[in-house]
Amino acid sequence: MSRFACTLSIIALAAASHGAMAQALGKYGAAFKGERGLSVVVAPTADDKAALVRIKGVNHAIDDVVFLADKVVEGRRMSLRTTLDGRPWSLVITQDYDGWGGSYAATQAYVPGLRDGVHLRYDEAGSKALALNTLLQSYQKQKAQGVQDKLAQFDRAKAVASAEAQLKEADESASQACGVPVRTSVAWASVSEDQMKRLSIGGYCAAVANAGRQLCGSDAGFKARAASLARISCQFGDKLHLGRQGDAVVFTTSEAAPNQDDFALQYLRNQ
Fold first, then answer.
1. 31 pLDDT exceeds 90?
2. DSSP secondary structure of 100-161
3. How far is 10 from 187, CA to CA, in rounded Å?
């Protein structure tokens, strides 16, 4: 068994509700170090189903917050999972691998806003110095203040702003390629909170602008009439559809519909 695997065996994780600690912490915890000063602490409760997790050294609201994370095992992958911004989020993931020298485990921390996980290595000195009672007290104090609950709540305004920033980037790229202003708007009332949590709304609604950019770069005839893309309205519905209403291109996207980029390309070619 690898050192990481042994470490994770030692730090037995245990069940507890997200509202309050159901059981006392276990006897041992573990500390890890990552790149650029990142540090992670994992502390067990009693029965191998959850853990307290703290990540420090990141420029994010989760810095120094103690989370009660569920242990989720999927094959050879173990995640310590909580809820952030209304979505399940794995703070720490350990994956077992087979190599020439035998099996080994790689552990990474995941911070919202970072594209990739941060590799962690076991910190023996930090683990020995870990004060589990202090960690538990920090969790209880933050929980009483509503810190974790606030971070768990879905922020619709932030999701809208993120999607609109993504659309703005697609529109600007299409505008540059086509030589005319392209503007995509979203009928936000058609987008459910569940869809906003699960889907890239900006990615779905950028299909027409992206198709226009592609055609403007390859078809001089289309570029000459690209002013038709000045206004694009996107909404979510049950069935994929593209059409015009006045001077606007109205795109009804559906999360279940395949080949949406090809659908948009074909529509614009035929206009």
1. yes
2. TTEEEEEEEE--TT-SS-EEEEEEHHHHHT--HHHHHHHHHHHHHHTHHHHHHS--HHHHHH
3. 51
3-class state of residue 9 by DSSP: helix
Mean residue pLDDT of the chain comes to 89
To which residue do tokens 């659908």 refer? 263
Closest-CA residue to 53 (of 30, 36, 78): 30
Question: What 8-state DSSP symbol labels residue 1?
Answer: -
How far is Cα 177 from Cα 155, in angstroms, rounded to an integer?
Answer: 34
Please give the pLDDT value at position 92: 96
Distance between CA atoms of residues 227 and 175, nearest Å = 10
Q: How many CB atoms lie within 10 A of CB 211?
A: 25
pLDDT at 165 over 90: yes
Please state the rounded mean pLDDT for residues 90-98: 92
φ, ψ (nearest 5 deg) of residue 263: -60, -45
Decide: 200 and 234 in contact? Cβ < 8 Å: no
Integer Cα distance of 256 and 198 in angstroms: 13
Element (H, E) at 172: helix 156-178
**Measured distance CA(92)–CA(79) in Å, rounded:** 6
- DSSP of 200-267, one letter per residue? -HHHHHTHHHHHHHHHHHH-HHHHHTGGGGSEEEEEE-SS-EEEEETTEEEEEE-TT-S-HHHHHHHH
Helix H or strand E encompassing 39: strand 39-44
**pLDDT 10s digits, 177-222:** 999 999 999 999 999 999 999 999 999 999 999 999 999 999 999 9
Backbone angles phi, psi at 230, to 5 degrees: -55, -35
φ, ψ (nearest 5 deg) of residue 29: -135, 180
Taking residues 44-53, report their average pLDDT: 86
